[in-house]
Amino acid sequence: MPASLNEIKVRIASTKKTSQITGAMQMVSAAKLTRSEQNAKNFQVYAQKVRAMTTDLIGSELSEGSNNPMLIKRPVKKTGYIVITSDKGLVGGYNSTILKAVMQMLADDHDKQEEYVIIALGGMGADFFKARDINVSYELRGLSDQPTFDEVRKIVNKSVSLYQNELFDELYVCYNHHVNSLTSQVRVEKMLPITDLDENEATSHHQEFELEPDRETILAQLLPQYAESMIYGSIIDAKTAEHAAGMAAMQAATDNAKNVINDLTIQYNRARQAAITQEITEIVAGASALE
Question: Following CA atoms 98, 32, 88, 163 in sequence, which dihedral angle do they give, to the nearest 10 degrees?
């Protein structure tokens, strides 16, 4: 049965309110994205400096072999995964994309749950794994839109500590990498042991350092901090992708609401025209009956 004029008017008004809300949320996400992109750029400058210093300090060890446990590959009995998602929805396919990729990776690389450890950053990921009876060893919820290192220090330090204590033998970070406002890519990056340093970089970034007390003691402190900073960089990157996904989702919702309003307006005009035509027909018929 066709909707009445009043019903159509109510639907138009309701959809307009929804459109205003999603439009406001889109602008908020855009502002968050701009700030997050700047934070990511600032972190890259820091990361490059830390990498240059670290590579220079362990340049000879990279070529000759190192005894530092952060650099040594050991037999993999258990693997640790830090999975980064959002705490809430309204971000399009941001969460489903990374969670689907992680589940596929776990199925391909492991035969049983005892072979891996899940560390969840974000409520959506933690709830997802728990709903499937996958044990989440540690979780962190309620990250701010622009997380500081102090916010994630505990779980990041814990992750590195678990590796140092050999509770797992490799550590990966799984997250959505921000490409641009419309695109993100799933990334699974190996954080521990540290294997991405190139000895040739030590030549191009060579610096003269006065070491106190000695190189080994400094590396014992520096390498865990280097790993922690790389994990933090992934969190910043993931948050940037989350804001971009939120902005795109709200823009799509706003556009869809406008399309619905246009369709309802056309429907309303047609119904109103039909009602007017019916009234005219009844008036003409009544006048004819009086003649």
Answer: 50
pLDDT tens-digit map of 96-150:
999 999 999 999 999 898 999 999 999 999 999 999 999 899 999 988 999 988 8
In the sheet that 183-192 helps form, which strands lie side by side, from edge to edge? 136-140, 116-121, 79-84, 170-180, 183-192
Distance between CA atoms of residues 188 and 185, nearest Å = 10
Neighbours of 216 (CB within 10 A): 11
Can you give the pTM of this predicted structure? 0.84
Best CA proximity match to 237, nearest among 185, 170, 159: 185
Pairing assessment for the beta strands 183-192 and 170-180 based on DSSP bridges? antiparallel
Mapped onto helix, strand or coil, the DSSP state of residue 174 is: strand
Query: Measuring CA to CA, which residue among 246, 219, 272 is closest to residue 72?
Result: 219
- Assess contact for 143 and 239: CB atoms under 8 A: yes
Report d(CA 162, CA 168) in Å as an integer.
7
Q: Which two tokens stand for residue 172?
A: 């990966």
Burial class of residue 52 in the structure, from the number of CB atoms within 10 Å of its CB (0-12 exposed, 13-18 middle, 19+ buried):
middle
**pLDDT tens digits, 187-240:** 999 998 887 776 666 555 455 556 666 667 777 777 888 888 889 999 999 999
Q: What is the CA radius of gyration of the chain?
A: 28
CA proximity to 206, closest of 52, 35, 22: 52
* Cβ atoms of residues 232 and 149 within 8 Å: yes
For the chain, which domains are there?
5-23+251-285 (1.10.287), 25-198+205-249 (3.40.1380.10)
